[in-house]
Amino acid sequence: MPKWLPHILLSAYFGFFLLLLATLAWFWPASPRAASQPIAFPHTVHAGQLGLSCSFCHESAELGPQAGVPAVSKCLSCHQAIATDRPEIQKLLGYQQRGEPIRWQRIYHLPDFIYFSHKRHVNSGLDCSACHGAVEEMQTVKRVRSLQMGWCLSCHRSRGASFDCATCHK
To answer: Residue 53: what are its φ and ψ, rounded to 5°?
Structure first.
C-alpha cells in the first residue's frame, strides 16, 4: 500500500463527514422555539380547561391570511371582571390604560416569497393543531412543525390539495 493512500482515504472520509453534516443542517427541521412574551398567556387555561376555540381569540384566521392576535379589548371583554387581581391581568390592564397594543412575539415565520392563507386552511376543515400542535397542553406556546416545503407538500399530498407552485409561491 502506498504511503499516501491512508492520507487520501482519511481526507475523503473527513470530506464526506463534513458534507453529511452540512446536508443535515440544511434539511433538518427547525428546532422548537418558544419566544418570551410580554404577557404569560395560559393557553392551557383558555384553550385547555375552558375549551375556547382558537377562533375565539384568533378571529381573523377564518377571514384572511393572518390568524392575528386579539386586541386588548378582546381580552378585557372577560378580564374586566375575571381574575383582575392576577399579575398578568394587571399587565393587561396596564396596556389598556396606556392605549398600547401588546407586542406579541411571533413563533412562526415564513419567507416573504411564500403566500399562506389561514382562511383557506381553516375553512377547508384543517384543525389548527395540524400545524400548531396541541397548544391547549403547552405551558409556553412553541413552534412544533418545521413548515418547510417538504412538510407542507406531504400534507397537501395526503389531503389532495394543489401542488401548483403558484398556490404558495409569489
So the answer is: -75, 155
